[in-house]
């Protein structure tokens, strides 16, 4: 009789212990609202900057602005209509540039930046994305002024003690040379 009781208890213990383990539930669950709020805030910032830049362009009757597919605007200070070569991936370009706020106050001068050498789309050089993309629209010897919204410039970080956060900028770039890669 004792054996029957022992076998019965072992049988039920085995059946109960064969239950699959349950996953632990998180103490807190992320709702994803921070990401959504951040995206909405960034869209609002971009819309405000875009309308400000569009008003600035409308008031400037001396220059013909071109809208780029990358989300910024530009005009030619000097244009080369005879050359057709534009930098491609892997080409080494030499250029000078400055950074100004949209009121024309110099933030970084050409002298501070110096002559830059950049391998297109292959260099980890510390350039804002607007300058990297703008160079690809230029030909050798051209000078172009770009108007960048903050997300194409210094964005949330700005430049310490020179430029605040989320400030659109303008940059005048002169492309001195293009060394074609094979």
UniProtKB/TrEMBL annotation:
<dbReference type="InterPro" id="IPR046357">
    <property type="entry name" value="PPIase_dom_sf"/>
</dbReference>
<keyword id="KW-0697">Rotamase</keyword>
<feature type="domain" description="PPIase FKBP-type">
    <location>
        <begin position="90"/>
        <end position="179"/>
    </location>
</feature>
<dbReference type="InterPro" id="IPR019869">
    <property type="entry name" value="Motility-assoc_PPIase_GldI"/>
</dbReference>
<comment type="similarity">
    <text>Belongs to the FKBP-type PPIase family.</text>
</comment>
<dbReference type="InterPro" id="IPR001179">
    <property type="entry name" value="PPIase_FKBP_dom"/>
</dbReference>
<keyword id="KW-0413">Isomerase</keyword>
<protein>
    <recommendedName>
        <fullName>Peptidyl-prolyl cis-trans isomerase</fullName>
        <ecNumber>5.2.1.8</ecNumber>
    </recommendedName>
</protein>
<dbReference type="Pfam" id="PF00254">
    <property type="entry name" value="FKBP_C"/>
</dbReference>
